[in-house]
Amino acid sequence: METLKDGELYFDRLFTKLKLPEANYERIEFEDCCFSECDFSQSKFHYCQFINCEFNGCNLSLIDLSSTRLFGVSFEASKLVGVDWTKAHWPIYHRDFELTFSDCNLSDSSFFALVLNELSLKTCQLHDVDFREGHFKNSVMSDCDFRGSLFIQTNLEHADLSGSTNYAINVFENRVKGAKFSRFEALSLLEYLGVELVD
């Protein structure tokens, strides 16, 4: 079975059905690589780089990305439960890291205080995710389930949450100017205004 080597550079490679849970890697660079149906659950990628890579149908739950850089990475139909995204390396000179998640499960994860403007989350399960003090201006967070997720001092200006459900966003504690919400779900925003809705 194919494995990965510390310190290597992998360019334009396709990795299919790699089963490497609980593995430890350091200083590997991946550029223009595609990972299909791979299992890296509980693995550690320290001081690595993922540039313009794709993950399709992968299990990345509890992955440790300490000091790892991600740019132009897309995740589709993948499981990313319990990931602490704050451990990754997010250089301040990037305004947009071009991260996209589609049809993924990111429950129990943390984006606490991260600046990830223009983040793309589409049709994702985001139960009990920590978005507190984060900056997500101009992000797309559409058709997602935010049950139990935390939004406190979060910047959601001009973010698109259309079609998303189960969010609890206090308009007095978060920045939501220009944000888009579906009409019915947006009624939950009124709870914090102390108004009573009647038929």
TrEMBL record:
Stored InterPro entries: 5peptide_repeat, PA_immunity-related
Pfam family, one: Pentapeptide_4
Name the record gives this protein: Pentapeptide repeat-containing protein
Species annotation: Celerinatantimonas yamalensis
